Amino acid sequence: MTSFVSSFFDNKPLRQLKSTITKGWTDKHLRNHMKMLSVPQSATSVLEVGCGIGRMLKSITQMPNVEVCYGYDASKCMIEEAPKYCPNPKVHFRLCDGTGAIKHTDPLVDFSFAWLVFQHIPSSPTVLRYVSNMARVTASGGTVKCQLLRHNERPGSPLWSWHSPTEIASTMEKAGCDSTVDYFTDRWVMVKGIKR
User: For the chain, which domains are there?
Assistant: First the structure.
C-alpha cells in the first residue's frame, strides 16, 4: 500500500473522509463530475478503481439501467466506511492491495473507470497495471475510462502525480481496447477504451 493511502485515509471516521482531499465537494461538484465522466446509458454493470467512500457510485446506482456496481479501493478505512455513505445493495465494496491488481471474479462489467485517482498514485507501473486489469474485467463492447492530469503540475509533490496519456492508451490497446485520448479541460485528460 502506498504512503499516500495510509497517511491520508486510514484511521479516519466517515465525517473526516468526506472532506479529505476534496474538502469543498458538493452536489453541484458531483453533477459536474458525473457529466464529465459520462457513464454509458447502456451500462448495467460498473466497476470503479479508487472508489473511496462511494461518491460517484452513489450517483451511478440511480441510473435506470445500472444493476450492479463494484468499488475497489486500497484504503481499508474507505472500504469500511463506504457502505455507511452509500448503503445500496447494488454496490459491492472491495479492498485491493494498491499494486494495480483487481481480484474480480464476478462477471465482466460494461463500464470500468478511475476518476480523481491516478493523479494520487506516484507509481506509473502501478497505474498501468490498474489500466490493464480494468480492461481485463470489461466485457467486449464495454468502455474503460481513466481521468489523468494533463500536466505534471506539482513535480515532487507526494499528492500529485502525472502519468503519460499515450502510455495509458497503449496499455489499453495491449489489453484489447481501441483507445482515444481526449484533452477535455485545461487540467485533465480522459483516456477512453472500447473493449474489442
Answer: 3-195 (3.40.50.150)
